[in-house]
Design a protein that fits this description.
It is a multi-pass membrane protein. The structure is a single chain. Helices cover about 80% and strands about 0% of the residues. With about 210 residues, the chain is mainly alpha-helical. Helix 1 packs parallel to helix 3 and helix 3 packs across helix 4. The protein is globular.
């Protein structure tokens, strides 16, 4: 996995960094915690430019957040939750996740977008309440961009600084990265196979039970 990703980034360059980070925000095939440190390794080897990698990673992260932002803004809360539940078997976001993210946004507002981009898992979900709360596109791009730049910068710096121990680190990172990817794939397969629709309470029964 280590060699595969670093070689892929070395060959695809900044477009590869952008694409992987965008996909990671829409549907995480490979987490950013693996993408950007590996990009840092590639920069340290001299194959890519540090500033360009940071810009590509940040732009990809923000671009990947936009589909959820626009979906939330144009669909609205109830329609988006219905969509999430209707395709809950295949999606990684449920109606309950949307409610949780919206509550956090209502409590913290713009700070939720800025700092939410620094937290794994929340990074994608925070785009939903920003859209539902009708945050302007300009503000969303600003706060999301700042948070994404800080996150990608931290991860890239970690990979860049460890370049002197490239081979030693690879011996540890490679099996760990394979284990993480395998666990994510296994979790998703199990989720799809074992998923069951939540029981729906008959509205007429609710009315009878209501005093």
């Amino acid at each position: 996995m280590f060699e595969f990703i670093t070689e892929f980034l070395g060959k695809s360059g900044y477009l590869g960094v952008f694409a992987l980070m965008a996909l990671e925000n829409i549907f995480p095939p490979i987490p950013s915690e693996m993408i950007m440190p590996f990009a840092g390794f590639v920069v340290a080897r001299g194959d890519l430019n540090l500033v360009s990698v940071l810009l590509a990673g940040t732009a990809g992260s923000v671009a990947g957040a936009l589909p959820w932002y626009y979906a939330a803004r144009f669909y609205g809360c109830e329609r988006l939750k219905h969509l999430a539940d209707h395709h809950a078997r295949w999606l990684t976001v449920s109606a309950d996740d949307i409610d949780t993210a919206l509550a956090a946004f209502r409590k913290h507002g713009r700070k939720a977008v800025l700092f939410g981009r620094l937290i794994p898992a929340v990074r994608t979900l925070i785009s939903v309440p920003a859209g539902l709360g009708n945050m302007s596109l300009g503000r969303f791009l600003l706060y999301s961009g700042i948070g994404s730049l800080a996150w990608t910068g931290l991860l890239t710096a970690a990979g860049f600084l460890m370049e002197n121990n490239y081979r030693e680190v690879a011996d540890y990172v490679d099996p760990v990265s394979k284990a993480i990817f395998g666990a994510m794939l296994a979790w998703y397969v199990v989720r799809v196979v074992t998923w069951r629709a939540p029981a729906k309470t008959d509205s007429r029964e609710q009315e009878r039970d209501t005093p």
